[in-house]
């Protein structure tokens, strides 16, 4: 409330003004709290039995200098709120209610209320006081009330209040956003906001959704469908039509994948009807990572999100059930576009990692197939051999590593391996030392895993001196006994032949 320090209302006028201001304050609190009043008809009226009238008014009017008897306290206690005009159930429309406390003077014949919104011309209403009563009521406080401005849900409006006649420094403005269709009252009673309430039951085995609809717009059919929600909800099936005559508003929808953006969408058949969506699988993020594909001819690994998702997609090498080491320069940020990794080695340990704010998921598309190339190890005499065999023409590089943290590796040589023609790598006995590993990886692709083999079981092919001297003390007596037995048997056989 704005009030000059020089104004000092006295007696009954003080009590009357206080009461009126308390009413205005209460109205303001209700408006701020989101509680919406209802009315059957809009109206314009004034207190103190003043027979004020409302009519349309021009928005274009020049102002003039303020009279000496008028100041900013002439009009105060201005409140603007939203109410609903309801003809019957589900037949309501939002209106603006403007109230103001006006001190009547001979120079003031009324108030002009103007509303401006985006894309529309400014409209004004004039509330005028009867001239015959102005002399008798001069100096009294009158509460002016008007609620005939029809507005749409969610509209931003600019409301201006001016005096009649228009004085240059006696103008009040206020910006207001009309509650949108998310407001409970509007969602149940304003036709353009009524979209119905959808309930569902999921049958995972049959991949079916049993849907029940309530609170829909009367006298109109209702439509249902499944859609993938992104910037728009893209339909995945035909519409199901529920007739307005049907007492039970039920339907069954079938789905193929339980994607987090798969939603049930419903709307009335009226033109430009508001739509509502519920997404039964919105927390099923893991379903997104099942679409990894591989083009063997192009050696391209790709994934395209079925739903919009903010994720980092990278390649990694599996190191057990709970660990996967990222491959260098393989990370890609994705939201809705297809991700492609070109020239990828389809090795069982090569995996795809998906990272979001909710966590990380790892998918290994080649885990159930044989590698295109492989290593075998053999140890003969004093020679260690690594054999590289391949089902494709490829190139590999191999090196020796020391099993430390971090692992240190030295590249030794690069090899070309032809299809079905194994290549042997001859190693020295040094590889039998503790902590020595052989590392091999493909070099003719952009992304490949590193195959590491450590802890070779070596044999030099010669008997151990310690084992020969002391390791088997029973061996020599056993040989002597066996020789003696054979000689005795041979002598007995010869004697037997002579006797016969």
Low-pLDDT runs of 5+ residues are: 1-33, 460-472
Integer tally of domains:
4
Apparent shape: elongated
Radius of gyration: 45 Å
Instruction: Please identify the top-level CATH class of the largest domain.
Output: Mainly Beta
Q: What proportion of the residues is helical, as a percent range?
A: 10-25%
CATH architecture of the largest domain: Sandwich
Taken as a percent bin, the fraction of beta residues is 35-45%
Structural class: mainly beta
So how many helices?
5
Query: How is the main sheet built?
Result: 5 strands, mixed
Spell out the CATH superfamily of the largest domain: Interleukin-17 receptor A/B, fibronectin-III-like domain 1
The CATH topology of the largest domain turns out to be Immunoglobulin-like
Distance between the termini: 148 Å
Strand order of the largest sheet: 1-4-5-8-2
Task: Say how many strands there are.
Answer: 33
Mean pLDDT comes to 81
Structure overview:
The chain starts with 10 loop residues before the first helix and ends with a helix. The protein is 13% helix and 42% strand. The chain has 500 residues and is mainly beta. The model is unreliable at 1-33 and 460-472 (pLDDT under 50). The protein contains five helices and 33 strands. The relative contact order is 0.07. The protein has helices at 11-32, 131-137, 184-189, 465-471, 475-499; strands spanning 38-39, 44-46, 53-57, 75-88, 91-103, 110-117, 123-128, 141-150, 156-164, 171-177, 197-203, 208-214, 222-229, 233-235, 240-242, 250-254, 262-268, 275-278, 293-295, 300-303, 311-318, 324-326, 332-334, 339-341, 350-356, 359-363, 373-380, 383-390, 394-402, 408-417, 423-427, 436-442, 450-454. It has four domains: 14-186, Immunoglobulin-like, CATH 2.60.40.2160; 194-278, Immunoglobulin-like, CATH 2.60.40; 285-363, Immunoglobulin-like; 373-454, Immunoglobulin-like, CATH 2.60.40. The strands form eight sheets. It has a five-stranded mixed β-sheet with strand order 1-4-5-8-2.
